[in-house]
What does this fold into?
Amino acid sequence: MKRIVKWLKSPAGISVGSTVLAFILTVIYDFLKNKPVLTTILIILKAIVKFFSSILNFQLKIWWVLLGIAFVIFILYIIYKVLEIKYSTTNLPPFMNYTEDIILHWSWKWVWEKQYDGKYDIEYLRPICPRCNTPLICNYFSYRCPRCNHEAHSDIPDLDTVKIMIMDNVEKASCIIKSVKGVD
It folds into this structure.
């Protein structure tokens, strides 16, 4: 019994039950009006056929079709732009603004890129000139600024070490934000 009640509450049970109920009510209606049984269903089917036949025989002008296509493209473009604005500004994680820092006595800049698995990774990590804020160029054992010719001869940290420190800074910042908001 529970199985039958569960099936009747399911979408399939509701659709089949509605169809059977409509058929039974139509037969009762025909019987009460002293009409031949299923006359109402026949009238409904004829109306459906007439409706589709009038739609299929409707004469369209080419400019109506072209205007309709242009309108659909315009609406899709508007929807695309609205969704682009909505998802580009509001759903970005807060650490996306963290793109430069001084780490191990060197200025660094980088870009966050979303990977195929949905996680963010540091890309284009590069040391920055302390004088003019231009990315430095590696010349074997030194780094030179292409703009002001400033040269740095001290050992530059390993890029993987710098990435680890950046990720650690992001994790620590998120822990601080959570503790301030009271989120555990």
Residues 179-184 have pLDDT under 50 and may be disordered. The radius of gyration is 35 Å. The chain has two domains: 1-61, 94-181.
